[in-house]
Specification:
Helix content is about 45%, strand content about 15%. The chain contains 9 helices and 10 strands.
């Protein structure tokens, strides 16, 4: 492996992952929203590991900013061996992006769908390269993040509501894990669907483990109280990065595609993710949501 592109490399698992990649002398490209963090990270990696690093400023809650970042990326004529779709946050409350989409769906899933599909179309991903989607065990209706919703919103848990993608009809508001859970389910369903048509590029998804990071920080006071507790009681982000590194190396050596890894082991995702008709519906609606916004 020569070049790896990672999203969300400025914190938590992504930050630890780029350090592990850099230790192996792999050049790093990353998409990130924070200018200062990005510049500092580039400097640190280049100085400490003597590798090439380039970054592309982009906010995953703003499709146009991803579009511009991709254009800048394409101008450099770089090919990559691996794309790790890692950027993401947990939001327990309802929010919409400037693209008028429910924010978790867009940040964690749709923006990454767009990035990967565009790089595939532009032949940036080499033959035998891979896309790894950092999903979560939270995709499952049985996950503890859905405990309350299994009582309050039973019929929505685990579902992609194709007729009401923004929860306008359901008026899903208040504290819920459903936004995050749906975004992580979407990543897995797209992985399964896309693996059937991709011939020379492998695509898989992974739950990296339950880890102390900043993933729930952006939830007001609750996020600020829970984040240090998570960091105290859960394993470190580095352990998650090691799991991802293990899986990337395994996939680069073997013909593995269309799989879901629970940490280092190929596992079954929740049964809802295997419904092929819904996988296709999700793929089609994702394309439609982008084209309606003139994102191509
Ligand atoms: N931690 C866990 O237990 C766990 C478990 C399962 C799955 N995951 C998944 O692992 C991935 C990484 O999360 P983490 O735990 O490492 O959390 P984290 O420490 O909060 O890191 C998240 C990364 O995503 C970036 N990001 C978030 N929103 C963004 C946006 N709108 N535009 C651009 N970048 C954005 C962040 O950028 P900034 O640095 O600018 O904030 C940061 O680099 C996520 O997809 C998460 O769902 C985590």
């Amino acid at each position: 492996m020569k070049n790896v592109l990672v999203t969300g490399a400025t914190s938590g698992i992504g930050l630890e992952l780029v350090k592990l990649l850099a230790e192996k002398k792999i050049n790093i490209l990353f998409f990130a929203r924070n200018k200062k963090k990005s510049a500092d990270l580039k400097l640190l990696l280049e100085k400490k590991y003597d590798i090439k690093v380039d970054y592309f400023l982009s906010d995953f809650s703003d499709l146009n900013s991803i579009k511009i970042a991709i254009q800048n990326f394409l101008k450099k004529n770089i090919t990559i061996d691996c794309l790790v779709n890692n950027a993401g946050k947990v939001y327990f409350s309802y929010g919409k992006t400037k693209d008028n989409l429910e924010r978790s769906f867009q940040i964690n899933y749709l923006s990454h769908f767009y990035l990967a599909e565009k790089l595939i179309q532009e032949k940036v991903l080499l033959e035998n390269s891979q896309v790894l989607n950092v999903s979560s065990v939270a995709h499952s209706p049985n996950s503890s993040i859905n405990s309350l919703d299994n009582i309050k919103h039973k019929k929505l848990v685990g579902q992609i509501n194709f007729e009401d993608i923004n929860y306008e009809k359901e008026k899903l508001r208040g504290f819920t894990g459903l936004f995050y859970s749906r975004s992580k389910m979407s990543q897995i369903m797209w992985t399964y669907h896309r693996s059937k048509s991709l011939k020379s590029i492998k695509i898989n998804s992974i739950h990296p483990g339950l880890l102390g990071s900043n993933v729930i920080f952006d939830n007001g006071l609750l996020g600020k109280i829970l984040t240090p507790l998570f960091k105290l009681f859960f394993r470190s982000s580095k352990e998650g990065a090691k799991n991802i590194m293990f899986v990337i190396e395994k996939i680069s050596q073997e013909k593995i595609t269309g799989k879901y890894f629970d940490e280092r082991v190929i596992s079954q995702s929740h049964e809802f993710s295997y419904v092929t008709e819904n996988q296709k519906k999700l793929f089609d609606i994702s394309k439609k949501l982008l084209s309606e916004r003139e994102i191509d």
